[in-house]
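Question (not urgent): is this output format expected?
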Amino acid sequence: MTNSSKGKCDVSKVVAPLHQYKGQDGAAQMEHFVKDDKLNAFRLPVGWQFLVDKPGSPLNAGNMEQYDALVQACLATGSLCIIDIHNYARWDGLIIGQGGPSDEDFADLWSQLATKYAKSPKVAMGIVNEPHEGNGYTSASSFVSSGSAAALATVKDSDGSTDKLIFEVHKYLDSDNSGTHTECVSSYVDAFEDLTKFLTQNKRKAFLAEVGGGPSAASCLKDVCELLSYLNDNSAVYMGYLGWGAGCSVDDKVFRGTVLWLWWLSSVFWPTGVDGQFFITFVIRWRCLPAYAFTDV
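Got this back:
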């Protein structure tokens, strides 16, 4: 289940992408990607509102059972499974710590999730999707220039380390970084140069958690391959990349085409493992609308 960019969602319309909840067969799709394409990570977006009834409250047992079923289906494939709170640092339009839920409310959500998955080493935590206040929706192009990289670099783990804290960036290759156009205008390799330099100098790593191009445009066939080749060449600081999206996916024709095309591309950049190696995979998406079937290839 994903929210609008204002962090809003009608939970009553959620359809979990699993057969037992009358959704699409997300479990079989993940198995397919792992067995047939050797992919090794999945990002599992979910709305904050689906997991708790209100900020600061305990996890909703019934809804958490559904989401956990998806997490367990992912873990059963042996893949890295990324919990993605897809709320844009908001709850119903109000920004966390700025008139919306308190910082403590959000920390409580993650405390509960961390407790639940503490013994699952293949579970990673995407703290929040695309907080946006003048920073380009986590765009790799502005991650350094906006001050986001420097600010986040000050965050440390409870033991003072940063080894397990990975910067998440996104980049679409169309004209406005939205991923809503079929044509790509650039590989945007130059947009990653500042980030690569920052990561190298500060001994940090990043993960390109959303990337995509149109389904058949010659510009995208060239540009996406060029960008992913650049990331592969700089794998000392980039842990991998994920295509948006796949499985029970968006009904938008642009993105559906992107799903099919990036699925093919995965055979070019073969994943090599875990622990600093490259991850190549897709988002398995929950929706605030009835799920649409994914057309396999």
